[in-house]
DNA sequence: ATCATCTAAAAAGTACGACTAATTTTGACA
DNA sequence: TGTCAAAATTAGTCGTACTTTTTAGATGAT
C-alpha cells in the first residue's frame, strides 16, 4: 500500500501502536480525516484495514473504537514493523525470539523429512559460506548468510505457516547484531551447529536436525535473556 | 467487518482462496464492482483489506493482480477461516497441527516460569475436569475443557505471539473431533499428560512441562499423519 | 416515579460523479 | 530502429448526497 492512503495508514496505525490513543478511546471519521489531512473516503479505507488487523472496531452512531492490544493480529507484518519501530522494540524482539525458538527446531525436523535435493545442496553451500565468513570475521556477510540459512530451512519445512516466519527470523537475527546481543565474532559452536543442521537435513536425520537447531535457538534465547536482564536490572 | 462491505470481502476473498482466480490474474475494479453488485467505493475498501493480507496488489494502469499464495499472510484469522472452509481444509489443518506442535511445548516451558498463582489454579481445575469428563466419556464436554486447557497454557506463556494462537489450537482440536481423528474415548495417557503439564507448570518445572506437552502434541501429530496417509494412500 | 415507546439526532455505510495521477502503450518522427 | 511525446487506461482521491443503524432523549401512560 502506497501513496497518500498508505501514508495515512502508517501514521494512524503507528499512533495507535505507540499508544497515542488509549485503548477504548473513540474516534470519529471526520476528526480523523481532518487530523490526517485526507478525505473521509481514504479514512474509511484505512479504518477498514486497521479493523481487519483487529486494532479498531467501527460502529454506527458510536465511532471508531481502539481495541485492546490482545485483539490485534500479532503476526501481521505491518503491525510487527510498527512495534519494532516504537518503544516496545525490545519486548517485541523477545516475543519474536521465543517464537523463533519454538518454530525452528520443528522446521528443521520437517525439513529433514521433506527437503529437496536442491534445497539440501543450498543448505550445505550456505553453511560453508558461514564457516568461511566466520573465520574472516566479516560480521555483515556472516549475518546475510545466517539469514539465508534459516530462510532455507523454513522453506524446506514445506509448511506455509513456518515459511512465512522467515521475516521474523531475519528481524531477530538482524536485531541481535544491531543491538550487540552477540559476541564480536560468531562462536565456533554456533557455526558448527549450523553445519550439523545442514548435514542432518541432507541425510534425512530428523532427530539430529531438531537437536542441533534447538542448540542454536537456545543459545540465542540465552543471549536475549542476558540482554533484558542487563536492561532492567 | 459486516454489512454489504464485509459480505463483498468474504465473497471475493473466498473466491481467491478457493482458486476461482488464478495467480497473476488481473482484475479491474469496475468489473469487480459489477460482479459483486456494489459500488466502486466498496470495492476499493475490500481491495485495500485484501492488499494488506498480501492477496492482491493494485497498480495504476494495470489493475488488481492476484498474488501468489506464498505472499499471503498465513496467520490472518480471516484467511485461515477461508482456507478451512474450502478444499484445502485438510492441508491447512495439517499445517496448523504442525505449528501447534512447535508452539505448545515452548509455551508450556514459558508458562512454568511465568504463570500466576491464579492461572496455576485454573490449569489444575481444568485438568481435573478433563479427567472426570474423560471417565464419563462425554466427548463434547471433554473437547471444551481441552480447548480451555490449552488456551490457559498459552495465556500463561505471557507471550502475545503464543497467546494469539489459541484460536488455531481450538481449530485443530475441534477439527480432530469433527473428522474423527481421535479415538472414541480420550486415551488415558493423553489425560495423564495434561495433568502432568498442569502440575509441572504449577511447580515451575519448565523441563517437565515442556516434555509432557511435547508428548501431547506428538500424539496429535501422529494421529493427523495417520489420517492423511489414509486419505491419500 | 417508573417504565415503555416513540422520535430525533448522530455517526458510519453506501453510492455516484468528477477529477487527478501514474503508467503503459502507441505511434510519429528523427 | 530507436527515442520521445501523446494518448489511453486504470487506480487514486475528493466532495456531496443520501441511507441505515444505533443511541439518547423526550413523551406519555400506568
Summarize the structure.
Chains A, B: This is DNA-binding FadR family transcriptional regulator. Two copies of one chain form a homodimer. Chain A contains eleven helices and three strands, in the order αβααββαααααααα.
What does this structure look like?
With 233 residues, chain A is mostly helical. Chain A has two domains: 3-71, Winged helix-like DNA-binding domain superfamily/Winged helix DNA-binding domain (Arc Repressor Mutant, subunit A, Orthogonal Bundle); 88-232, Up-down Bundle (Four Helix Bundle (Hemerythrin (Met), subunit A)). Helices cover 72% and strands 4% of the residues of chain A. Chain A contains eleven helices and three strands. A three-stranded antiparallel β-sheet of chain A has the order 1-3-2. In chain A, strand 2 (56-59) and strand 3 (63-66) form a beta hairpin. In chain A, helix 5 (89-114) packs parallel to helix 10 (188-203). The mean pLDDT of chain A is 94. Chain A binds chain B through residues 1, 5, 41, 44-45, 48-49, 51-53, 69-70, 73-78, 95-96, 98-99, 101-103, 105-107, 110, 159-164, and chain B through 1, 5, 41, 44-45, 48-49, 51-53, 69-70, 73-78, 95-96, 98-99, 101-103, 105-107, 110, 159-164. The structure holds a DNA duplex (30 and 30 nucleotides).
